[in-house]
Amino acid sequence: QSVLTQPPSVSGAPGQTVTISCTGSSSNIGTGYDVHWYQHLPGAAPKMLLYGNTNRPSGVPDRFSGSKSGTSASLAITGLQAEDEADYFCQSYDARLGGWVFGGGTKLTVL
Amino acid sequence: QVQLQESGPGLVKPSQTLSLTCTVSGGSILSGSYYWTWIRQPAGKGLEWIGRIDTSGSTEYNPSLMSRVTISVDTSKNQFSLNLNSVTAADTAVYYCAGGRWRVDYWGQGTLVTVST
Predict the structure, then answer these.
(1) What residues in A contact B96, CB-CB < 8 Å?
(2) How far is A109 from chain B (nearest CA, A)?
(3) Three-state SS for A78?
(4) Which one-letter DSSP state was computed for residue A83?
(5) Chain B residue numbers touching A33 (CB-CB < 8 A)
(6) Helix H segments across A52-109?
(7) pLDDT tens-digit profile of B40-96?
(8) Of B46, B62, B108, the CB nearest to A2
(9) CA neighbours closer than 13 Å in the CB half-sphere of residue A35
(10) DSSP structure class, residue A5
(11) Helix (H/G/I), strand (E/B), else coil: B89
(12) Which of B47, B107, B109 minimises the CB distance to A102?
């Protein structure tokens, strides 16, 4: 069981918007540690989508956005495209563990 | 651009030691204030942080694995390594090496290690 909780799957039609939640606790997100989001395609290294809750690395489309409140964070993907079909996971730091913690991953299906 | 590549046996027998090495290319392992980290993902499960080492050799380990894990760094080879002893089938996973401090800036491709006779 992952320290950060994500829904196992979400789906949406092309052009629609989906959101993926990431719920933590007082020892990680709730303490104020940033949340980072990654896209993971099978057989490839994960790719950073958002860092510091809301910031996009160079090259990531502005269709991807993030937010954080309390012990949770969310990733929103607008204008869904077929190429967005992938696994997405969140990551933060946990003071009790003394290291990184991850969400269990959410599989996005573009219908 | 910094790249990481894991190497090591893909098959380990139960009770033996799993040993993996991560080679850092495109930059020095000494540059930046990075933690060099090992992460794993069993099939169908989420990612698990195993532990990290910094360039001074200071380590932190996941308490659930601490008794079996050693992470070391060889700055002359620009590499860091993972040793996990007394493995069981539960240690079968894709193992990733990674670099970063509060977030993962660099990922290896991952390597599948199967624990089986």
Answers:
(1) 45
(2) 17
(3) coil
(4) G
(5) 102
(6) none
(7) 999 989 999 999 999 888 999 999 999 999 999 999 999 999 999 999 999 999 999
(8) B46
(9) 34
(10) B
(11) helix
(12) B47
Residue B109 has its nearest CB partner, among A2, A45, A48, at A45
Instruction: Grade residue A79 by pLDDT with cuts at 50, 70 and 90.
Output: very high
Burial B50-83 (b: 16+ CB within 10 A, else e): bbbbbbeeebbbbeebeebbbbebeeeebbbbbe
User: Could you tell me whether strands B104-107 and A86-94 are parallel, antiparallel, or unpaired per DSSP bridges?
Assistant: unpaired
CA atoms within 13 A on the CB side of A56: 12
In this structure, what is the dihedral angle of CA atoms A74, A76, A82, A83, given to the nearest 10 degrees? -70
What are the residues of chain B with a beta carbon less than 8 Å away from any beta carbon of chain A? 37, 39, 45-49, 51-52, 60, 62-63, 96, 102-105, 107-110
Secondary structure (3-state) at A53: coil
